[in-house]
TrEMBL record:
Transmembrane segments: none annotated. One of its GO terms (molecular function) is 3'-5' exonuclease activity. It comes from the Bacteria. This is DNA polymerase III subunit delta'. Residues 215-289 form the DNA polymerase III delta subunit C-terminal domain. It catalyses: DNA(n) + a 2'-deoxyribonucleoside 5'-triphosphate = DNA(n+1) + diphosphate.
Length: 295
């Protein structure tokens, strides 16, 4: 038997807000939970769903002992519907969305709420989004749809306009560091470094550690240093990088560039955040000409 889902500590405020809306019977039919990748939005949505289904929630949390909580812990609550692509990274099929319709317009089996979690909401094409639209407009009473996305720009406007938006910001750095220290068994300095590499997203930082991405990261930094010192040509370095995860690499390059821009605009060396490439980034930043002096 699995356990109930617990949201990360940095979602406490969001959870309190939604639980209060629920207590006042003011919850809308659909919430669009959005924010950056890797902070645990889907877990938050699922833990809130479990609280809504719980027969005796306490302080905005599921009790863990009632019949509903037992069903949720076993992953078999009949009034919870998790809609996600059949394969990670693929689109939600229109047939999957239609199957959701049967769930939404049936009666809650446990007599309470019916909750749907759609993760990610940006994985719908026009046909599946259209199939969902009517359900978003008239989902029936005591039904809540929780849509989750890290890519707001890819959620269709017609979907966005029918949901109340819940923005999830990047967790406070110190909170994230102490969480990462305990989950990843790290010291503070290392936790801070790994968090910076992962744009402040703690869950992503933990995945970075668990998937041993440190060696890929080191390969990126080594490659850049080799190009700068003319030890290898950009082409050779690019060929070596081909084996790495391209999306990940581009994300890292983007955030290194941000650091260089910051270093070029600020006088002090502390403006660079990536410790693992500090000297190189500062050296490049010093060679740059600020744009205004070009005019
Ligand atoms: Zn319960």
């Amino acid at each position: 038997m699995t356990e109930l889902i617990t949201a990360y500590p940095w979602f406490a405020e969001r959870n309190k807000h939604l639980a209060e809306l629920h207590r006042q019977k003011r919850l809308p039919h659909a919430l669009l939970i959005h924010g950056m990748q890797g902070i645990g939005k889907a877990l938050f949505a699922k833990s809130f769903a479990q609280m809504l289904l719980c027969q005796q929630p306490e302080s905005g949390k599921a009790c863990g002992v009632c019949k509903s909580c037992e069903l949720n812990a076993a992953g078999s609550h009949p009034d919870l519907f998790i809609l996600q692509p059949e394969e990670a990274g693929k689109q939600l099929k229109v047939d999957q969305v239609r199957a959701l319709g049967e769930f939404i317009y049936s009666t809650a089996q446990q007599g309470g709420y019916r909750v749907v979690v759609i993760d990610p909401a940006d994985s719908m094409n026009i046909a599946s989004a259209n199939a969902l639209l009517k359900m978003l407009e008239e989902p029936g009473s005591d039904t809540l749809l929780l849509l989750v996305t890290s890519k707001m720009g890819q959620v269709l406007p017609t979907i966005k306009s029918r949901c109340q938006h819940i923005e999830c910001v990047t967790p406070d750095t110190e909170v994230a560091i102490s969480w990462l220290m305990s989950e990843g068994d790290l010291d503070e300095e290392r936790a801070r470094g790994v968090l910076t590499i992962n744009r402040g997203a703690p869950k992503e930082a933990l995945a970075y550690l668990n998937n041993n991405l440190g060696e890929d990261r080191a390969q990126l930094i080594r490659g850049l240093a080799d190009i700068l010192k003319q030890r290898r040509s950009p082409l050779e370095v690019a060929q070596a990088w081909q084996k790495l995860d391209l999306e990940l690499l581009l994300g890292w390059l983007y955030s290194l560039l941000t650091d260089i821009a910051r270093g070029a605009l600020c006088e002090n060396d502390d403006s660079v955040r990536h410790e693992d490439a500090r000297n190189m980034l500062n050296a490049v930043a010093k060679k740059l000409t600020p744009l205004e002096s070009l005019n």
